[in-house]
Amino acid sequence: MFQQINNQASFQVTAILIALWLFTRPRIRRGPGWQFLMALIMMASAAFVAGYSGSRVAALGFLLALPLFMISRWRFIVQDKLRWLAISVVLVSALLGANQFENQRGLTSVLEKTTAINAGFSGSARLGMYTIAFDVIKQAPFLGHGIGSFVRVWQFAKPDFYAKHPDAVLPPQRVSHPHNELIFWLVEGGAIAGIGLVAFAFSVIMTLIKLPHSRRYAYGAMLLPITLHTQVELPFYISSLHWFVFLFLLFVVMQASTRRYQLNLSTAAINLIKLATIVGALAAFVFLSSSMMANLEFKRYQMKQVAEGSDPLAIALHHPYFKKFATEIMMISLFNSSVRYALDDNVRLFAQWADQELNYNPNIAFYRLAVLANQYLKQDQHACIIAKKGLSIYPVDPTLKTAVQQCEVDR
Questions:
Q1: N or C: which end of the chain has fewer CB within 10 A?
Q2: C-alpha distance across the termini of the chain, in Å
Q3: pLDDT band, residue 308 (cuts 50/70/90)
Q4: Is 50 exceeded by the pLDDT of residue 263?
Q5: Residue 121 half-sphere exposure, CB side, CA atoms within 13 Å?
Q6: CA angle centred on 125, ends 109 and 182, rounded to 5°
Q7: CB-based contacts of 57: which residues, under 8 Å, 6+ apart?
Q8: Are 116 and 124 within 8 A, CB to CB?
Q9: Whole-prediction pTM
């Protein structure tokens, strides 16, 4: 229910289109009136939230998807003109009502933000993000830089971008995704990954083409809002709900063209499948249980509910998914406590770890702490090197700016 605003908006636009689809189905058209009323309330609620959000991607997705839907289902719409007139009135009223409810958001801000994107690098960080990503793609066009490499290669490409565009505006924090799924995979996987994505898209389009006219464009319309959203943000990485809905819609599209085959398996193969199912279920249970326990450790650590002398992240530090995050937390905690109690060897250990970590994880927080650690150890020259490198990546960070200015004064 509570999501990032554009995620919420693209999901609600998808809900609107699903409701419109249901209005054309026999169960709603000829069924009890309460079913139609429930679908109408769902559509109105989704329209109000989408309109109130002021999301450009949601507005564009809806404007592109609605004509496709009407082309596909027009035959059913004209059969129930009065009902569809009522549906249209409710839909438009919900959208306009959201705009009137909050003039600082809603449809007004859609127009303002659409105009702002034309202002160049200083008007939209997105354009700068794309430019850096394209430069990085050119460095490894065929195989890419490797899975999980985007954070490293994109951040390290920022200094060259700033040198060419000194007035450009980029996000001040570390960027982990270019807000475009295709560009993200071109950076990490190169042309190989790009070909795979194109092949997938082509297979979906061909499946849609083979469907009857009454379903072809309607199914495409329902897929469109979330698909469009993946090209301007990262919905699948911050919303499992988007994953579930998108995969379900893909199943609906694909299952119409499935072919059934009868396969006779040997007794050994059947037993192997049963064994693999049991082992897989147990492995999933162990992984999910340990994930839940690791999350509880993070919660207790954040809420300062850890018993004195205990290992606060014992499970997370050995978990295949949470190990890296837990290590970062423990190293930061080690640095802070070591500085407080003047434990020089521990501060030196953190400084060495930070030097290695920054080679593949240029996190702004690690640059700040690495500078502080080296200053504490009286390694001012090395602290200046780290501060200058960090400032070239994060030029608006006040902590790094102050450190570099101090370096200039002491030189």
A1: N
A2: 55
A3: confident
A4: yes
A5: 14
A6: 100
A7: 6, 9, 10, 225, 228, 229, 232, 233
A8: yes
A9: 0.86
Angle between helical axes of 33-53 and 81-101 (0-180°, round to 10): 30
Query: Using one digit for the tens of pLDDT, what is the confidence trace for 351-389?
Result: 999 999 999 899 999 999 999 999 999 999 999 999 999
310's tokens: 């205990």
Place of tokens 């001012």: 380
CA 225/CA 356 separation, integer angstroms? 42
Find where tokens 């040198």 sit.
Answer: 163
Residue 189 amino acid letter: G
What is the torsional sign of CA 367, 299, 241, 51?
negative
Helix axes 240-255, 213-229, angle to 10 degrees: 160
Copy the structure tokens of residue 10. 């693209």
- Listed in sequence order, the residues at least 6 apart from 404 whose beta carbon sits closer than 8 Å to its beta carbon are 384, 387, 388, 391
Residue owning tokens 């859609």: 110
DSSP symbols for 231-287: TTS-HHHH-HHHHHHHHHHHHHHHHTT------PPPHHHHHHHHHHHHHHHHHHHHH
Residue 119 has pLDDT above 80, yes or no: no
Cβ atoms of 324 and 313 closer than 8 Å: no
Residues found in the chain? 411
